[in-house]
Amino acid sequence: MTQDELKQAVAQAAADHVAAHTPEGSLIGVGTGSTANFFIDALARQKHRYRGAVASSEATRQRLEAHGMAVFDLNDVSDLPVYIDGADEVDAGLNMIKGGGGALTREKIVAAVARTFICIADASKQVTTLGRFPLPVEVVPMARAHVARELEKLGGRPVLRSGFMTDNGNQILDVHGLSIADPKGLEATINQIVGVLTNGLFAMRPADILLLATPDGVRRSG
Ligand code: 5RP
Fold first, then answer.
1. How do strand 201-202 and strand 96-97 relate by DSSP bridges?
2. Tell me: the pLDDT tens digits for 123-167?
3. In principle, which of 68, 88, 109, 202 could form an S-S bond with 100, CB 3.0–4.6 Å?
4. CB 103 within 8 A of CB 166
5. 98 Cβ below 6 A of ligand 1
6. Cα–Cα–Cα angle for 55, 57, 63, nearest 5°?
7. Cα of 147 to ligand 1 centre, how many Å?
8. Is 107 a catalytic site residue?
9. Is 33 near ligand 1, meaning CB less than 6 Å away?
């Protein structure tokens, strides 16, 4: 199976899970990226079941609307039963690195509101220790150099994602060379650096369920 076929399989499994576990008329939180895009397509095939969605990026909002799904502002939503999103890396504790697509801040916000976070990934994303994938850190542009110096003190090698601006008007530093033994601790430490909006560690709020696509089928943890 190709990686895209794996992503498609796990996206369909997630859409089936959501249809089986959420009442008709629910709002669904939707992530960002190529796996999330396959999920949007699968979700839209059953769109009559749902009131609409909450999007974690402008790209996701546009794809949902192109399918004719209503997209709600998170500020108008008090209950979000489920959030489905991909990951760049996921470990056995369902801690993740996210933000390869640059949507980490909105993803973290929607995930914080959702009762259940379902991570959908192909098996290449599963790791023993997080950190081989460069950790994305969203920074306020005027603080970029300061934040980069502080990240170097933590042992990382920050690289500006060139030509990229987040949906929030900020920049991304991709931090190479970290071996993350304590994901929660590092998430908190990086969040304390003045000028950091969010970092791509999802450990304080990990996934609740992982659906992992393998050539032998979709495996569930959590
Ligand atoms: C975007 C993300 C994505 O979930 C992550 O980059 C995985 O993307 P893909 O499904 O394309 O491999 O965090 O900000």
1. antiparallel
2. 999 999 999 999 999 999 999 999 999 999 999 999 999 999 999
3. 88
4. yes
5. yes
6. 70
7. 23
8. yes
9. yes
